[in-house]
Amino acid sequence: MSSYFEYRGQKVHKYIVYSLILNAVLISVLYLDAEGITVSVLRGVISFIFLTFVPGFLIGKILRLDKQGFLEFLLYSIGLSLMAIMITGFLLNISLPIIGIHRPISEFFILSALSSLTVVLCLICHHYDNDFSNQVSFSYTRSHIKMLLLISLLPILAVIATFTMNYYETNILLYILLILVSLVIALVTVKNIFPEWIYPYLVFIMALSLLFHNSLISNYVWGWDVQQEYYVSKLVVDSGFWNSSIPTNVNAMLSIVILGPVYSIISGLSMEWVFKIIYQFFFALVPIVMYLVFKKLTNPKVAVLSVIFFITTLIFYKEMIQLCRQEIAELFLTLLLLLLLNNNLPGRTWGILFSVFSCGIIISHYGLTYMVIGLIALSYVLFTFINLVARYINTDKVIIPVTPIRLNFLHICIFIFIALSWYIAITSSTAFYSVSSVIYQVISSMFTESLNPTASQGLAIIQKVPVSQMHLLYTYIYYFNQVCIVLGLLYLSYKTFARKNMYNYSIMQLIMCGVAVMVLVGSIVLPYFASALNTTRIYHIMQFFVSPVYIIGFIFALESIPKVYARIVKSPFRSNLSFTYGIISLFLCVYLLFNSGVIFQILNDHPSSMALGGVPDYPLYNDLELESANWMTDPTIYSGYIPVYSDYYRSLLISGKNGRWDYTSGGITSYNWSDANIYVLSLNQSGTYYTYLGSYNINKQLVYIDPYPQHRIKNLIYTSLNNLALINEIYDNGGSVIYYNI
Fold first, then answer.
1. How many Cβ atoms sit within 10 Å of the Cβ of residue 684?
2. Of 451, 577, 431, which Cα lies nearest the Cα of 503?
3. A Pfam family name for this chain (predicted)?
4. Residue-level pLDDT at 111
5. 138 has a pLDDT exceeding 70
6. Could you tell me if 186 and 589 are in contact, meaning their C-beta atoms sit under 8 angstroms apart?
7. What's this model's pTM, rounded to 2 decimal places?
8. Nearest residue to 79 (alpha-carbon basis) of 346, 265, 259
């Protein structure tokens, strides 16, 4: 028996009352904590709710965004909250030092500013007295509620599974988690199990579970870029001030130097756990926004399968958790894409949101900003050209539909102007020079090194020889995916121009998909293009545009086989989309088991999962290594004038503790040590220096070094500890050793 649920939203005065109550509770909790009455869990929960929802909800009510529906209103509000926090912190940082306050990013001033902002927004809401209440309604059965509760346990299982892996080194619960998520994917299109109204929550839960199963491994941040992010954000937390004069790209990203520190200071969580938990929550919202975008372009089934394809790709839950700034930027990107499809908002409101979300991308991640600008600008140029052609060659036989869009040339110019202004002013032009040098390098070598695997990272990946038959099958799965993307683009192009399209793609959206495919091809053909951002990251970004195209191509491929057979035997063809969706769901289920490393781990076939313990050496650190790194980077122990050498992975740990990795010079330049440098070990270092070794180095007697540090391209190899001159041991805690070579 089915029941009916209806929610009519809240009146303005209730939003105001709830906001003020939350604000008062947060102030009370922080006061109790300051008085020594520890309420850490309550503080974390209240501060998260207040920071994440209150500013955005009030701004959303002022802009009357609740008319767009509850889910869109919620997502827009979260984006507005994050922007409000970053802008507030930025203004505090530049204004308070003028009047002699040297720690503007501290608990008192942040809380005072956000509380004042809340009161002002409440007054504006009361003045407008906008009492429109959005409505949510759907029918459900008791089995639906049971299933909803069961899938809600997946993130909890992820937390427990990573805990047992961290402290007991058992991966059984992680296996169970990944298999359960795969089972959910296999059944996702079965209507009796998962109704369409549950899809947004379903993709959020699956995404959060997959993210947690990697991010919560170890008690410290692990990976590459996240070490830089941790250093600059921790510097802000410790000093109470963002030093914008540090000329690095990462230091100019407010998503790292303002947003993270504000959550850390107000919630009481360390920056490690802000990155591991809070940032992953925000990134798990991205699939929900993508579902809404894809649903407007296709239908609920294609939309949910498209999102599943996106979140089950390895890059989403392994590589992206090492790029916290890009996680926030991608949330703003998806909100911008959702906005571009919205034709119901008033022009002024639409323009405000476009500016806000564009700025959100700009101050969150420079690489994604340039990629989005290039993609949108090129798509707009091609769209304008097609419109011009349509005016002259449109005949009764050739029909080129001209679709109006809200995005215009002025919007793109504003986007570009804000981006260049921010990067030139704040990063001392380092972000601008970075993209300029990449463009110059690509153009200068285009005709001499095209399709050269030593210059093309994408081509090198394609030509990499699989280590086993199962890994070869895994490679073929990725090849098949690319074929489906091309098939989907061709199918959509034909149907759109022939006005036979069963989907809702306009010419502009189709062009953006085409440009995304061109970028993927460019990452293979163009020298040094893919390596500038990393091939896998480019593929991940392009999935925002081509994921539905992939599913459409998959559907076309599956239905073409029985259609051709029907023509051969001259029998009528009957499309069975439910069966087709089921096949795709099963494929994506297997796709996750490959990507997550479950299959390789079970077969012991060159395991690839760090979370499952299949990768012996990785930038992943235990408590003993953290203890020694803290000792090594304590300025009261070490003045910083002597170089520190470590192998490649352990040098990342030291950099996250006290310095910034400088790829151009091969070392890490520290800003709290006057002359400190941290380098990757080679076979010929000399003079006076420290050598830092971690647990893997000690247990395996191996180090991952760069034998030719003078070369521009690193050629990292493993070599025996016996090949290094290690003398004068000055520290040993059983899991890490430090030597002082004279």
1. 9
2. 577
3. DUF2206
4. 97
5. no
6. yes
7. 0.93
8. 259
Would you call 78 helix, strand, or coil by DSSP?
helix
419 φ, ψ to 5°?
Answer: -65, -50
Structure tokens at 394: 């449109």
Q: Mean pLDDT across the chain, nearest whole number?
A: 86
Candidates 244, 273, 270, 272; CA nearest to 258 is 244
- In this predicted structure, what is the pLDDT of residue 460? 65
**Tokens coding 237:** 């937390």
| Cβ-based neighbours of 356, under 8 Å, separated by 6 or more | 79, 80, 83
Q: Alpha-carbon distance 488 to 472, whole Å?
A: 24
DSSP state string for 134-202: --EEEEEEHHHHHHHHHHTTHHHHHHHHHHHHHHH---HHHHHHHHHHHHHHHTTT-TTTS-GGGHHHH
CB contact set of 365 (below 8 Å; sequence gap of 6+)? 253, 255, 323, 325, 326, 328, 329, 330
Instruction: Return d(Cα 636, Cα 617) in angstroms, integer.
Output: 31
Residues in the chain: 742
Q: What is the DSSP string of 325-352?
A: HHHHHHHHHHHHHHHHT--SS-HHHHHH
How far apart CA 19 and CA 371 sit, in angstroms, is: 37
What's the token pair of residue 235?
């510097």
Tell me how far CA of residue 299 lies from CA of 61, 242, 295, 344, in angstroms: 29, 45, 5, 19
Sign of torsion over alpha carbons 286, 292, 293, 297: positive
Q: How far is the C-alpha of 437 from the C-alpha of 454, rounded, in Å?
A: 18
Please identify which residue in the block is written with the tokens 């073409």: 560
Contact call for residues 725 and 741 (beta carbons, < 8 A): yes
CA separation for the pair 459, 462 (Å, rounded): 5
> Distance between CA atoms of 221 and 639, rounded to whole angstroms?
25
| Between 599 and 425, the higher pLDDT residue | 599
- pLDDT (tens digit per residue) in 371-412: 999 999 999 999 888 878 777 776 554 445 444 567 888 889
Give residue limits of the domains in the chain.
Answer: 2-128, 623-741
| DSSP-derived secondary structure letter, 721 | G
Share of the chain above pLDDT 90, in %: 59
Q: Specify which of 130-139, 232-241, 608-617 reaches the highest per-range mean pLDDT.
A: 232-241
Whether residue 85 contacts residue 328, with contact meaning beta carbons closer than 8 Å, is answered with: no
Query: How far apart are the C-alpha atoms of 192 and 415, rounded to whole Å?
Result: 45
Residues contacting 521, CB < 8 A, separation 6+: none
* Amino acid sitting at position 618: Y
Query: What are the pLDDT digits (tens) for 558-585?
Result: 998 888 777 777 777 677 888 999 999 9
How far, in Å, CA of 119 to CA of 16, rounded?
9
Q: How many of the other CB atoms lie within 10 Å of CB of 136?
A: 13
Closest CA to 331 of 277, 263, 283: 283
Render 357-376 in DSSP notation, one character per residue. HHHHHHTT-HHHHHHHHHHH
* Token digits of residue 654: 């030291």
Radius of gyration of the chain (CA): 27
Contact (Cβ atoms closer than 8 angstroms) between residue 719 and residue 683: yes
Tokens of 360: 């959100």
Rounded CA gap, 480 and 476, in Å? 6
What would the mean pLDDT of 589-608 be, rounded to a whole number? 95
Query: Which whole number is the average pLDDT over 360-376?
Result: 94
